[in-house]
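Issue 218. Parser rejects a valid record. Input:
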Amino acid sequence: QVQLVESGGGLVQAGDSLRLSCAASGRTFSSYTMGWFRQAPGKEREFVAAISRSGGLTYYADSVKGRFTISRDNAKNTVYLQMNSLKPEDTAVYSCAAGTPKYLGSSYYRMNEYDYWGQGTQVTVSS
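Output the parser choked on:
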């Protein structure tokens, strides 16, 4: 069992930066692929970024590539999402998730590959 708690959301202006954190409970954090997903009002949840267990592989949605960076610190049981050059369309509730995709390279974006989810943190970007 893994419990995930996100933090770091807030209200910012377009062009600003935010860093989200996701703290995980348990001693098996390094066993999980970690992902960030977001859900904007009236829209379906979508993939944002994922990172492999060791941190050596990262994946991004096209919409955030070059602006967002996912990282993890297995010693601190924490995964981060550094968000730069934020846009109003980045406004959403951001949730982290932990899972063990069998074929990471082809399934990192699939929500059903993740077993544990946090409650989410709101990010609002004003224009």
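Fixed in the parser; the record now loads. Helices lie at 104-107.
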